[in-house]
Amino acid sequence: MVYDVAVIGAGIAGMTAAIYARRAGKTVILFEKESIGGQIALSPKVENYPGFKDISGLDLANNVFEQAMALGAELEVDEVKSIERAEGFFRIVSNYGAHDAKAVVIATGLKHRKLDPVTKLEGQGVSYCAVCDGMFYKGKTVAVVGGGNTAVSEAIYLADICEKVYLIHRRTGYRAEKAVMERLYSKANIVRLENRVVSEAEKADGGVSLTLASTVGEADEKLAVDGVFVALGHIPQNSAFAALINIDEYGFAASDESCLTRTPGVFVAGDCRQKAVRQLTTAAADGAAAGLAAAKYIDGL
Description:
The chain is an alpha/beta fold. The protein is built from 6 helices and 17 strands. It is 23% helix and 30% strand.
């Protein structure tokens, strides 16, 4: 069987693409190698998605998934290893077989660079998105781990919400832009803890207790905070598709809001593509654009 549309990734972007392609009358196969919903499924509460005052990330992901399945999309729990061009279709090669489709939507998202000592507390005081979860810590004390633009920007954002923000960095000096650093220095409630790394993390008194190890030979110290934000960068999941799409120096797929790539019939959606804002709403918007673009492409074949 040759499907009309193959969607790679069952996060919000991919599932939305499946919904729109099915509503356009196209057959859809949806691939997911891990868990439905992507990273949002790990969030205990979502308060910035229109239509819900608050909802757990898992419930939101399940709602979108059930909608896609009710419309007739098919799910394949498998990891896509490559996409090969054939005459009139694309062959999607996965661990357990191969499927053919006339169009492909790549919505593989990205992975946050992990901080091993705190991974066990993800969703229990440890987050990777200040915009998503910062308001849970209004008036409280948090820590941000990292030293680049993302970490410094998240610390600045949180400083307007939280009573105190600790910025933990493994060296002296930061990789953030000059203008961003000037904003950092203007925030009196940001405490910079340089030459330190997080070596251990435990739940404690409703928050998180961090053990900070010195990188310059000083003694370890304990730091008690209400929440921890890890901002060590992201890893887009696009490398398997480099033969069909352009990938920038950071690993993101080159595309604008149209979600088009250099290969006709191949589209990208969600956090894996170049974009200024990475939120649930923009992922859904990408999914809609890519799903409709795939349907239009098929209609023109």
